[in-house]
Structure formats: C-alpha cells, structure tokens
Design brief:
The model has no long low-confidence stretch (mean pLDDT about 85). The chain has about 290 residues and is an alpha/beta fold.
C-alpha cells in the first residue's frame, strides 16, 4: 500500500509537469526526437520525377502501369528512463533530495513521450539492475513509472552504470532514446557509454547538489558516505579542507564532462538549487539547432 503522502507527491508532480509539457515544451519534443526509420504507407501510380528505385515491380507487372512505393516516417519511439537509485541520490541540502528531482524530471520526459504516442520504459539500478518496467503507453502506465521512481526501495547502495547500460542493450533491441539520470558518482563507465550511444540515442542527466561542491564553514561535522556507509569527522573551519573538497568536486565534474564529449553523449545538467526548466529548454533548443 502506497502512503498517502507519496500519492499526494505524485499528484503534485503530475500537475507541475503537465503544465510544463503543455506550455513550455509543446512541439519541441516531437521536432527533436525523430522516428526510427521509414515504413511502407501505400502504393500509387508513378509520376515523372519519382525515384525509380521506389518502383514496386510486382504491382507494376500486375497492372501494366508503373507504380511506386510511398514511405512514411515511423514516428513511434521507445523512451527508456534509466534512474540511479543508489544511496547518494537520497541527499539534498536545498528544497529537495536528488532522487525527488530525478522523479520530477522523469515525469516531464514521460509525459512528453506519451503525448506523442511514444512508449516509455523504466530501468532502476544501483550496483545492479533492480527493477524494470517494459515500455508501454498511456497515462496509467506513466503514473506507474513516476510512482516507481519515487517510491521504489532499492536493495543496493552503490552505483554500477556499466551494468545498467548492458541491461539496456539486452532488453531493447531496437534503437531507443535513453535518459541516464544519475549523479555519476561512479567509475569506469566511459566504454559503456560509448557502446550504448552507438546503439541508442543516449542522453546523460547529471543531478547535483551545491553541498557536493563546497563545504560551509560550520566547525566539526560528521560526514557519512551514502554509498559505502563510511563516516569521517571533518573540520570545515579549515580553509585547506574546504579548498581540497571544492577542487575534488570540480575535478570530478570536469572529468565527467570530458567523458561525455569523448563519447559524444549529450547532457542535461540539473541541480537541486535551480529550476530544471531552463536546463531542459536549453537541451531542446540545442537539439533543434542540430536537427535544422
């Protein structure tokens, strides 16, 4: 039984994301994400200027009149939401946790997809793939996806991005649009990103919190790693400690960006202290310019 507060949260997310999809992203999703190929539509008589390679010789022979095949774009897409449910996602120093932001972002993407008659699937992973919802359509299905992102209780605490991408490749035979939502506090995922991006349209969605970048000057604090459970005592009054912490965070972010560039993976950077609307809008505008 899902707690009432979770259902209320799902409802709030649905209302907010419906507004965003209808008023802000209307039309952009369809223009950015194209169909997966061409499919047969009909046969009609040949007219001068038609591509002779499209002549349907069987119909031509049967009717004694040249006919050509007419193809149409296969519009339906499969959108896979890949959500990192490791321990570090249950952290936030501003208005909400990273996993709550991830759930709302997934809701925007899922609602955009079903409004365009696309299928939506979900992969929830930690150090292994823990939950899979096959792609499907419809409002009820999308609400289930949002609920699982919010309410799913993971067994693992660490992050294994390669395992999640390998699972994606095994369960999704056709090319899909895959959003990888994670804080990317992981290692050795570059090769897997490159392989997955060749098979699918892979988009990374790094989720960060300002406290992961800088430490406040508040004296001695006990800090616990959400993925390993290790606790250390940190003197935040020490300037050198704060400087090293900030440098490590900056190096981590730069390394992540370099990996995305080398693997040609587009990214939507979202933060718990900022609206994700601008980040998504910027991404869609970038994709529109590329498609133009």
């Amino acid at each position: 039984m899902i707690p009432q507060e979770v259902m209320q949260q799902i409802r709030r997310i649905q209302i907010r994301t419906n507004h965003m999809v209808n008023d802000i992203l209307a039309g952009q999703y369809e223009s950015v994400f194209k169909g997966q190929g061409m499919e047969f539509k009909e046969v009609r008589e040949y007219v001068p200027g038609d591509d002779v390679r499209m002549i349907d010789w069987n119909v031509t022979a049967r009717t004694s009149t040249p006919h050509v095949k007419v193809l149409a774009e296969e519009r339906e897409l499969t959108v896979m939401l890949m959500v990192d449910a490791s321990g570090s996602g249950r952290f936030g120093s501003v208005a909400r946790f990273k996993n709550e932001l991830a759930a709302e972002l997934c809701a925007v993407l899922a609602i955009s997809a079903i409004k365009n008659n696309d299928k939506v699937g979900l992969i929830v992973f930690t150090d292994q793939v823990e939950h899979y919802i096959p792609p499907s359509k419809g409002r009820t299905h999308v609400l289930r996806v949002i609920r699982e992102v919010l309410y799913y209780e993971p067994k693992g605490r660490r992050t294994n991005i390669p395992a999640a991408l390998q699972y994606l490749n095994s369960v999704t035979k056709r090319r899909a649009v895959a959003f990888l939502v994670s804080d990317f506090m992981a290692e050795d995922y570059e090769v897997s990103l490159r392989i997955a991006n060749k098979r699918h349209d892979l988009i990374a969605v790094p989720v960060t919190d300002p406290r992961e970048e800088t430490l406040p000057e508040v004296g001695l604090v006990s800090v616990r790693d959400a993925e390993t459970g290790r606790e250390v005592l940190v003197n935040t009054n020490d300037t050198h400690v704060r400087t090293r912490y900030a440098k490590a965070a900056l190096d981590r972010a730069k390394n992540r960006e370099r990996i995305f560039q080398r693997t040609r993976v587009d990214a939507i950077d979202v933060r718990t202290d900022k609206s994700y609307v601008d980040a998504i809008y910027k991404f869609f505008r970038m994709r529109e310019r590329r498609c133009a």
